[in-house]
Amino acid sequence: MYKTILVPFDGSALSARAVPVAVAIARRTGARLQLAIVHDPSAYIPFVPGEVAIPVYDAAFVREHRMQDQAALDAAVAEITAQGIAASGVLLEGTIVEALVEHARAADVDLTVMTTHGRSGFERLRLGSVATAYLTRATAPVYLVRGSGSDAPPEPPVGTLVCALDGSPFSEAILPHARTFAEATGLTMMLLSVAVPHAMPMAPFGAEVLLMDDSAIALEETGRREYLTRMAAQCPVGTTVHAVTDMSVARAIIDEATRTSAGALAIATHGRGGLKRMVLGSVADEVIRHTHTPVLVYRPV
Question: What distances in angstroms separate CA 114 from CA 9, 14, 129, 150, 294, one per listed residue?
Answer without folding.
Answer: 8, 9, 12, 16, 10
